[in-house]
Design goal:
Elements lengths: L9 H13 L2 H12 L7 H14 L12 H16 L2 H32 L3 H8 L1
Helix pairs in contact: 1-3, 2-5, 3-5, 4-5
């Protein structure tokens, strides 16, 4: 799995996120599911919007350079520490929310990587076609 990050301007990111949100959820899910199998969406417009979204999600920021499992693991550790220290009434509900956000973000980054990888041309197919 390639871990490349993209240079995306603020305006490009906003436009990509807006276009992605305007897609019907079924088309978004279908495009991401197909990307998980290494295939692009058959509709070029949908494929283009989803690919721009993946570049916006995988933009060059410090949090995209940290492994995705780091935040959920830190939440679990802090929840355990808070419970052990007796602050579980506050720490556990807040930690559970932070854990869910971390898991959702990790899943988002994995989906964006799958879309970005599916968007790359298949080198073996290109060689076969040119031969």
């Amino acid at each position: 799995m390639e871990n490349s990050l993209y240079d995306v301007t603020k305006d490009e990111r906003r436009a990509a996120m807006k276009a992605f949100r305007q897609l019907p959820s079924g088309k978004r899910q279908e495009a991401i599911r197909r990307a998980g199998h290494g295939k692009r969406h058959p509709d070029p417009a949908v494929a283009g919007i989803v690919e721009q979204w993946s570049r916006a999600v995988l933009r060059r920021t410090w949090w995209n350079q940290v492994p995705g499992w780091t935040q959920p693991t830190a939440c679990l550790a802090l929840m355990a520490l808070g419970s052990w220290l007796g602050a579980g009434v506050v720490v556990i509900p807040g930690g559970a929310v932070a854990l869910m956000i971390g898991l959702l973000e990790w899943n988002n980054r994995r989906a964006a990587r799958a879309v970005a990888n599916a968007a790359k041309p298949d080198v073996s197919t290109d060689r076969a076609l040119s031969a």
